[in-house]
């Protein structure tokens, strides 16, 4: 296992700064996800850790070894890392066994040890019965497991994964999330994982670093970032949310388009605000209530029902369990209960949301 320490790290290409000052530490055995939209700096950060790029300024340590700064660039093969790419990059002319054995052969590991370690790793990724097959005889998920086994067979201190599941179909992608997470924990290695998929980040991570525009917007556990986003960009990127403009005064928030007020439980922000409400944090009931609306549309998705409810000038999204599809219909008058909401100062809210791609 290895700690990764990043200090005052920047990266520019000419006049374009793609990574602003980054100061983070990834702990031994931690599963860290770098999450964000395209062009936000997450893959650049991974490439800097791997040694494929040199910092414009700042330093990177893997364990106690300084591996990168503006004057130092330890090559990737000297860093004791494993890496898995989006494209798998398994060699088509080699069998599964030979693909996995390759990192050991270039290190001149004894033949008997090679066989033992490769077979053990193939067992870990559930591919021992495919050892003599070629990649074109495997499914996408099996090829991805070959790439994982090859990255792990040399027992690296650090595993780097760059969008490794994006080429898989949805069902296989979901199952592979759990396999990678379980494998990393069973081997006790430090993992840095790059993705733009918030479901992957939520499922797999000990901590998420959410990037945008070359800098980290927020870091924390999935529950911390999801339930306590620091700004509207974070709330919008990680999960579903609807935003409404309002005015906070005297413990009440008046929502302009709703033409209605809500109690402000904390009264931490006064004046112009933007209120974010996740659709799963609203409940619908038939009958009277403090907030009344009309169901305009509803979509049955099996495990959930997705409603659009009209309140004043606003359309409010509500997500409830699938069985609720049978309890309500378009045109029903309903009462709404707001179970939780997020309140942000209105300054620059639209600018924060605009920079998401």
Protein architecture, described:
The strands form 4 sheets. The protein has a 6-stranded mixed β-sheet with strand order 6-7-8-3-9-10, with helices on both faces. The protein has a 5-stranded antiparallel β-sheet with strand order 13-12-11-14-20. The C terminus is likely disordered. Helix 2 crosses helix 3 and helix 2 packs parallel to helix 4. Helix content is 25%, strand content 35%. The protein is an alpha+beta fold. It has 2 domains: 229 residues, 3-Layer(aba) Sandwich (Rossmann fold), CATH 3.40.50.300; 115 residues, Beta Barrel (OB fold (Dihydrolipoamide Acetyltransferase, E2P)). The protein is built from 9 helices and 20 strands.
Shape from CA axes? globular
Helical stretch count? 9
Looking at CATH, which topology of the largest domain would you report?
Answer: Rossmann fold
So what's the oligomer here?
Answer: single chain
Number of domains: 2
- The amount of helix comes to 10-25%
CATH superfamily of the largest domain: P-loop containing nucleotide triphosphate hydrolases
Strand fraction band?
A: 35-45%
Primary descriptors:
single chain, 357 residues, alpha+beta, Rossmann fold, OB fold (Dihydrolipoamide Acetyltransferase, E2P), five-stranded antiparallel β-sheet, 35% strand, disordered C terminus
Task: Give a short synopsis of this structure.
The chain is built from nine helices and 20 strands.
Secondary structure layout:
Layout: E1 4-13, E2 16-26, E3 31-35, H1 42-50, E4 57-62, E5 65-68, E6 81-84, H2 96-105, H3 111-124, H4 140-152, E7 158-162, H5 170-187, E8 190-195, H6 198-204, E9 207-212, E10 215-220, H7 222-227, H8 232-237, E11 242-249, E12 252-255, E13 260-263, E14 271-277, E15 282-286, E16 292-300, E17 304-311, E18 314-321, E19 333-338, E20 342-345, H9 349-354
Parallel strand pairs: 3-8, 3-9, 6-7, 7-8
Antiparallel strand pairs: 1-2, 1-4, 4-5, 9-10, 11-12, 11-14, 12-13, 14-20, 15-19, 16-17, 16-19, 17-18
């Amino acid at each position: 296992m290895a700690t990764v320490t990043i200090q005052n790290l920047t990266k520019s290409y000419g006049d374009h700064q793609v990574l602003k000052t980054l100061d983070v530490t990834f702990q031994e055995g931690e599963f860290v996800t770098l999450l964000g939209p395209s062009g936000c700096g997450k893959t650049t950060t991974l490439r800097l850790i791997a040694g494929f790029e040199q910092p414009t300024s700042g330093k990177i340590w893997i364990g106690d070894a300084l591996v990168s700064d503006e004057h130092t660039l330890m090559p990737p093969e000297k860093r004791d890392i494993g890496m898995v790419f989006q494209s798998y990059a398994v060699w088509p002319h080699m069998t599964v066994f030979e693909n996995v054995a390759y990192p050991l052969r270039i290190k001149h590991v004894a033949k008997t040890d090679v066989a033992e370690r490769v077979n053990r790793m193939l067992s870990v990724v559930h591919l021992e019965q495919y050892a003599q097959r070629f990649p074109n005889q495997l499914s996408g998920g099996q090829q991805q497991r070959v790439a994982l086994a090859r990255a792990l067979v040399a027992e690296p201190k650090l595993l780097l994964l760059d969008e490794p599941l994006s080429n898989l179909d949805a069902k296989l992608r979901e199952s592979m999330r759990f396999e990678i997470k379980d494998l990393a924990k069973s081997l006790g290695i430090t993992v840095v994982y790059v993705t733009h998929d918030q479901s992957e980040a939520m499922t797999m991570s000990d901590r998420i670093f959410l990037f945008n525009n070359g800098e980290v917007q927020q870091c924390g556990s999935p529950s911390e970032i999801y339930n306590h986003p620091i700004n509207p960009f974070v709330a919008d990127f990680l999960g579903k949310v609807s935003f409404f403009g309002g005015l906070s005064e005297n413990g009440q928030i008046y929502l302009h388009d709703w033409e209605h007020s809500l109690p402000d439980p904390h009264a931490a922000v006064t004046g112009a605000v933007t209120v974010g409400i996740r659709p799963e944090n609203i409940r619908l009931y038939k009958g009277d209530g403090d907030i009344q609306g009309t169901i305009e549309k509803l979509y049955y998705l099996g495990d959930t029902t997705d409603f659009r409810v009209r309140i004043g000038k606003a359309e409010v999204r509500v997500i409830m369990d699938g069985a609720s599809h049978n309890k309500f219909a378009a045109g029903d008058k309903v009462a709404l209960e707001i179970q939780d909401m997020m309140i942000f100062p209105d300054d620059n809210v639209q600018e924060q949301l605009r920079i998401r791609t």
